[in-house]
Amino acid sequence: MKVIFVGAGPGDPDLLTVKAQRLLRQCRICVYAGSLVSPEVVGLVPKDAELHDSAAMTLEQIEAVFVSGQQQNTDVIRLHTGDPAIYGAIREQMNVLDRLGIDYEVVPGVSSFQAAAAALKTELTAPEIAQTIILSRTSGRTPMPAKQELAELARTESTLCLFLSVHKLATVADELIPYYGADCPIGVIFRASWPDEMIVEGTLTDIAPKVTEAGITKTAMIIVGPALSRDIPVSKLYHRHFSHGYRSADGSAETSDGAES
C-alpha cells in the first residue's frame, strides 16, 4: 500500500497526464482538494470509491485517511490541483507518511502557470530579454522570507509568475514599476483552462483597474515581464548561420554519424 500524490492539472481534464487518468480510474480511496480540482477530474474516480474533500479537513484528518488505507492495504490517491510540488503542502504530508512508515510517490501535473502562459499564447522566455522564470507569490497569512520579497525578485527583471496574489494586484503593480517600467506587459488569467477562463491583459499602469472591472478577485495567475511583448529578438536556434549538434552553420542537416545530408 502507498499514498500517491497526483497532479490534477489546472482544470481541463484533457490536461491530465495519462498516468493520472489511469490512477484516478483505478483508485479506491481519494482525498482531493474540492475547492480547486474540477468536478470533471474528480468524476474520473469510480462512483463506489471512498472520496474525501480536503477543503474542510485538517492534517490530522487527512492522516486518518492514510491510516485507514494502510489498514485496508489499499492505495490512497492524494489529488492536488496543478502540480503537487508547487504550493501543494505535500512535504508536511510526506513527513506524516514517513512517521507512519507508509510509502508514497508523486505524479507531476501541468501547473496553472503553464496553462496561463498557454492562454496568453506567449512564451515565458525570450532571447536577450528573459532567460529566467520566477514562480512566487505575495505575502499574506504566510509571510515571505526577507530575501524573497517582490522587490528583491523584481531586481532580476525575470518573467514573474505570481500565484495567490491577484487580490493585491494594485500593490504588486506599484512595486514592480520601478524595476520593469510602467509600460511593461502583464497578463492576469482567471481559472486558466476552465470553461469560464478569463484573460485580462495590459501594462503595469492600467492592469489593476481592468481586473477590478472584470470582477476577478481570486483564483488567477499573474504573469509579468518584458518577455510577454510581441516585439522580441529572433533566437539563434534556427538561424542559418548558427551551428549545433544537428545542423551545420550553412543550414544543412547532419546525420547521427556526423555526415552532412
UniProtKB/TrEMBL annotation:
An example Gene Ontology molecular-function term: precorrin-4 C11-methyltransferase activity
SUPFAM superfamilies: Tetrapyrrole methylase
Keyword Methyltransferase: yes
Alphabetical UniProt keywords: Cobalamin biosynthesis, Methyltransferase, S-adenosyl-L-methionine, Transferase
Keyword presence, Cell inner membrane: no
Pathway(s): Cofactor biosynthesis; adenosylcobalamin biosynthesis
Superkingdom to which the source organism belongs: Bacteria
GO biological process: cobalamin biosynthetic process; methylation
Domain Tetrapyrrole methylase stretches: 2-207
Family note: Belongs to the precorrin methyltransferase family.
Stated name of the protein: Precorrin-4 C11-methyltransferase
